[in-house]
Amino acid sequence: MSRQNSRIKDRLAIKVLSGALIGIAISLVLSLGAYDTQIIGNKAEFIAQILGSALLGVICNGGSIVYEIDSWGVTKATLIHYVASLGAFILSSVLLHWFPTRYLPPVIAIFTIVYAIIWLINFITWRKVIRQMNADLKQMIRNEKEGGERL
Amino acid sequence: MNKMVDVDVILDERYADPKVTIQTRERTAQVENIISAIENASENEFPLLPGYDNDKVVLISQRDIIRVYTENRRIIIQTADRSYYTNKTLSAVEDMLNPQRFFRISQSELINLYKVKSFEFTITGTIGVELENNAKTWVARSRVKAIKTMIKGEK
Hints:
Mean pLDDT of chain B: 87
Oligomer: heterodimer
Strand content of chain A: under 5%
Largest interface: A-B, 33 and 37 residues
Number of helices of chain B: 3
Order of helices and strands of chain A: HHHH
Shape of chain A: elongated
Strand order of the largest sheet of chain B: 5-4-3-7-6
Number of strands of chain B: 10
Strand content of chain B: 25-35%
Number of strands of chain A: 0
Helix content of chain A: over 70%
Order of helices and strands of chain B: HEEEEEHEEEEEH
Low-confidence stretches of chain B: none
Structural class of chain A: mainly alpha
Distance between the termini of chain B: 47 Å
């Protein structure tokens, strides 16, 4: 139990770190464009943007660890990741003024559709894997019956 | 009437695993002993598992085991008609079992692949497995790849 848990903890650490780095990188790149506009007027706002993006990266990427929790299942994992990422995204975009708030509804709608598609693809893929496994299993059991009863 | 048994070994390419045929006039006690000895010999590689049935120790043949799982602090060994418990750890039991048949499906359970009725992928995104004794349990997604390989290998 603890061996598996420590592996998950290691992977979580990697995800959190890479999430933060990706967030910072994106923030820096976009800040180059924002330099001339009103979003970043002073040092404090610049740091806020960097930290905010890093945090969003941590939650989204780190949050994806839920998919590795076997007992939760794909649906629950997708749902939790969706809620956490969406929540963090809404907070960040509003507090950091990424776009006018009137854009939120369509943005959220697109976000939701993307997650629904991710879930659907996951679901269909796994179902196919399981169906194949059942077919192979039947074959395996049939082979043993024909080969004679053994241990 | 008991004399030394005559043993003939016939090499035949067609038999990947040895097949034993006993030619006898009648099925005496000696013949029964021979059959037990042969069955024991093939089971020696994969030992009988000791399990408790109400404080009484029973030796369970691996071919009868459907699943082995953790419940409270004990390991339960389940066959078609009853359950036994053991104080060994799941890993200890796993080491005794034939790895071609028994597979770890989660942190707390192993199953006999040949006793599986079917797998299913539920709407909640978990992998269910139904066994011959109608017991239902779930398989960890992280174990699926290994199970797939094993089943394909055994095909």
